[in-house]
Amino acid sequence: AQSVTQPDIHITVSEGASLELRCNYSYGATPYLFWYVQSPGQGLQLLLKYFSGDTLVQGIKGFEAEFKRSQSSFNLRKPSVHWSDAAEYFCAGSMDSSYKLIFGSGTRLLVRP
Amino acid sequence: DSGVTQTPKHLITATGQRVTLRCSPRSGDLSVYWYQQSLDQGLQFLIQYYNGEERAKGNILERFSAQQFPDLHSELNLSSLELGDSALYFCASSVSSGGLSDNEQFFGPGTRLTVL
After folding, report:
1. Which chain B residue lies closest to A33 (C-alpha atoms)?
2. What's residue A42's pLDDT?
3. N or C: which terminus of chain B has fewer CB atoms within 10 Å of its end residue's CB?
4. Cβ-nearest to B42 among A45, A99, A106
5. CA-to-CA distance for B116 and A6, rounded, in angstroms?
6. On the CB side of B51, how many CA atoms lie within 13 Å of its CA?
């Protein structure tokens, strides 16, 4: 079955520290992959997406993600976290012609001052 | 602002009742997707419409139905409401003209449904 897994429910980092949020997928073939961010009480904003080609993808707000086929992973990274990055982050995949999104369970990021 | 609008923002109702959630996609987008976000189920795909026709169905209950109108806005109808239907309901839209990048989904702010 198609699935997206985010193994970390919560992550706490200090402001200015680097960040890596993990995402693994299980599909028959390489899916289209996305990272979304949800701030409290807000909708979902797309950070970045991977369809094909270069496996290192740059997104908004200084985020990047690397697709690794051998590890079935699409981890999100940021070199220096800001307090405003505190939010919930969702990894999602899309594999069929409907392009519906299958979401991971989310990782809540807390930023220490 | 994604360009996708959803009304109402909040809805409080009682068990057994019926409600309608409305979504207006971005200008030019033909596809509308509905998702449910709840504490126990997370974010789940419910249903997709493309240019007025149902295209894909997910974990949508039989008590729930949706449609997309000629002006491309969509409504999600929830009936015989139960406590467990309390959730945030998101609508997303995409161009869906066939190109990969045309299927990027833009999400509305959601409708928070509380069933008492």
Report:
1. B104
2. 81
3. N
4. A106
5. 32
6. 5
pLDDT at B47: 95
Averages of pLDDT over each 10 residues, chain B, 116 residues: 93 97 95 94 93 91 96 97 96 75 83 97
How does pLDDT run across A12-64, given as a tens digit for each residue?
999 999 999 999 998 877 788 999 999 887 889 999 999 888 899 999 999 99
A58 vs A44: CA distance, rounded Å = 18
DSSP string covering B15-79: TT--EEEEEEPPTT--EEEEEEEETTTEEEEEEEEETTEEEEE-S--TTEEEEE-TTS-EEEEE-
Distances in whole angstroms, Cα of residue B43 to Cα of each of A97, B85, B112: 20, 13, 13
User: CA dist B44 to A22, A26, A104, B87, B94, Å?
Assistant: 20, 17, 10, 11, 17
Q: Is A3 on the interface with B (CB under 8 A)?
A: no
Q: Answer whether residue A1 shows pLDDT above 80.
A: no
CA neighbours within 13 Å on the CB side: how many for B11?
A: 25
Peptide bond before residue A7 is cis, with ω within 30 degrees of 0: no
B43 touches chain A (CB under 8 A): yes
How many Cβ atoms from other residues are within 10 Å of residue A85's Cβ? 20
